[in-house]
Amino acid sequence: MNNAAPLAINNIAKVAIKGAILTYVFLLKLVSLGMNPLYQKCLAIVIIGLILTQCGKKKSSQAYVQEGIKYSNQGHYDKAKESFLKAIEEDPKNLAGHYGLGGIYNLEKQYISAEKAFKSTIQLDPTHYNAWYSLGYTYELMGKTKDAEISYTKYRRLKEKMDSIMNKEKP
């Protein structure tokens, strides 16, 4: 049996109870200051609402990337794009989010946006050889053969280095 769900509910309940207690204490202070009871009730509802919106568990950047990959594999590219954008919003340094978004932009023939996404990936990790390859492919689709060849050359150089490192680690 999975104990994670009851623990999450327990934590949410604890946060909500603490919030309710703090709201009650705050309202008692307002009563002592002579605030109108109707305003007190409205303020209590607003405060409790704000507290409860913080109780929900937000998806991680990596969870959004996984969701985007799943949608891509299913051919739901609009949903995949949304997921990759959410991943980047959650963590602007998420390599997989930028890389996945670039792939979606290429499918949509939005080559300038794809170029930017792949360049963001490379800026975050200059050794991401797949991003160099994808950037080269994007340039090729844009008709920029010279830029494509430069990117493909960087891809081959990095890939060879990675393969060399991986082969040295094998017994």
| Radius of gyration of CA atoms, rounded to a whole number | 25 Å
Summarize model confidence as the mean pLDDT.
Answer: 83
Shape: elongated
Query: Could you describe the largest sheet, including whether it forms a barrel?
Result: none
The SSE order reads HHHHHHHH
Q: State the end-to-end CA separation.
A: 40 Å
How many H/I helices? 8
Q: What are the low-pLDDT stretches, counting only 5+ consecutive residues below 50?
A: 1-9
Structural account:
This protein is mainly α and 171 residues long. The protein has helices at residues 4-32, 37-53, 61-74, 77-90, 95-107, 111-124, 129-142, 145-169. It is elongated and about 75 Å long.
Describe the secondary-structure layout.
Blueprint: H1 4-32, H2 37-53, H3 61-74, H4 77-90, H5 95-107, H6 111-124, H7 129-142, H8 145-169
Helix pairs in contact: 1-2, 3-4, 3-5, 4-5, 5-6, 6-7, 7-8
Quick overview:
82% of the residues lie in helices and 0% in strands.
Which features characterize this protein?
8 helices, disordered N terminus
